[in-house]
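Let's practice the habit of predicting before peeking. Look at the sequence and jot down your guess about where helices and strands might fall. Then scroll down.
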Amino acid sequence: MLNRDDRPTRPEPATRRRETFTGNRALQLEEPLLFEVGRTDVTGVDIDVPEHAGDRLGRHRRKAPIGLPALSEPEALRHYVRLSQKNYAIDSGLYPLGSCTMKHNPRLNEAAARLPGFADLHPLAPQATVQGALELIHELGRWLIEITGMHSVAMSPKAGAHGELCGMMAIKAAVRARGEDRTIVLVPESAHGTNPATAALLGFTVVAVPAREDGTVAAAEVRRLAGEHEGRIAAIMLTNPNTCGLFEPEVCEIAAAVHAAGGYFYCDGANLNAILGKVKPGALGVDAMHINLHKTFSTPHGGGGPGAGPVVLSEALAPHAPLPAILRGTDGGYRLVEHAEDEAALAPFGRMTAFHGQMGMFVRAYAWMLSHGADGMRQAAEDAVLNANYVRAGVQDLMSVPYPAHPAMHEALFDDGFLDGTGVTTLDFAKAMIDEGFHPMTVYFPLVVHGAMLVEPTESESRASLDVFVATLRDLAMAAKRGQTERFKDAPRFAPRRRLDETRAARQPVLKWSPPEPIEDAAE
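Done guessing? Here is the structure:
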């Protein structure tokens, strides 16, 4: 019988191809779990055992050892470096996730965010000592107001969905301030999933607005629904450009219809990067819109945080913006308003976070704005739209386009019609892209398109990189049509792990590691 101190006892998973003694494939190292590297009975550091001073844990005191593995510094460093080498990132290559805008994060922005005075700020520092930081946040907000043509901005929301919640909470506060009980929010069927979720969270009833055959929303349908629910429409939540990658041609008429019904127009600003410097949402009738700084202004996605999702507001909603707020005094200084009673003109719905936002993201976004200028930001939007249409034009003879009547905006949408009869699914196609060295595009979204494949190349990509990407899509499409199903059903073949059962992993997650059973050494 072997144990873990003699040699690895974990049986070889069926998904691993062991072609070498170690399982390594040249510089692609087979990396075990931390629990398989370290030992729970030792530690990589020497710490004197303190005298017992008591604690206040009560019944929450741990009843068993924590069971975490201990590693030396080289072991820990190697483990995480090896894991990082298995990640695909925007610094590795083209990242075509539609609706996520994975674009280059300029290193100039990173350097600015690390400057003393920004990187080492404490949220409880006296305001007199952080005037430069307050000025930067205020100036960033002023630029966002100018870019969008809105009246004011709330800077504290931490991400897109958080900002979406902020905008809808401001709308709810405005409705209540008018003494009205409006309970209906109109949401297009093609909306981001967070839209109906946010409305429902706030107690609204969601009424779906169907998409037309061309993938857009009809103002006539909005007017019909407004009439059907007369006096109860609180808002519409519309994404423009929409999730199908199309600009809503009747957006002004839609805004007018909602306003005539007494409601507000919330615009999901996730796709502002497509119209930056070209269209001011305020001129379209928008009352509230969140802005994903990572999508439009190149700050990192953050892998679940920290993010930033400022919300721009119309004059009607501005008084209801959350605290804290930054105001500029007559002396040229800046102050952080923490309490509503400190500013009579404010009627905030409350606060979204303990502090004011994510300073590092503010600095990065502001640096991107300054380095681009008005003309550069406009060109970024134009290049993003150009690149998306370049991809669509390059493959539309082989891959089916569900809405060919309109040009694409920042992303190109395909459906699985071109795979009919091939035995290859959208998921198979996406997995085959991994073998070709690309992260797959967004699949099965938006839900209004069967087998959707949503590609967003962003403005970061050169024509050369797009040509390789387009050529790869064409090769895969032709392989599917030629019946080379094994190339797809077996994919990915060259990744560190083969295809996973993602449905089972989501429904039956294994959240706790257990030691494997020891295995007996095979007889000679």
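How did you do? The radius of gyration is 27 Å.
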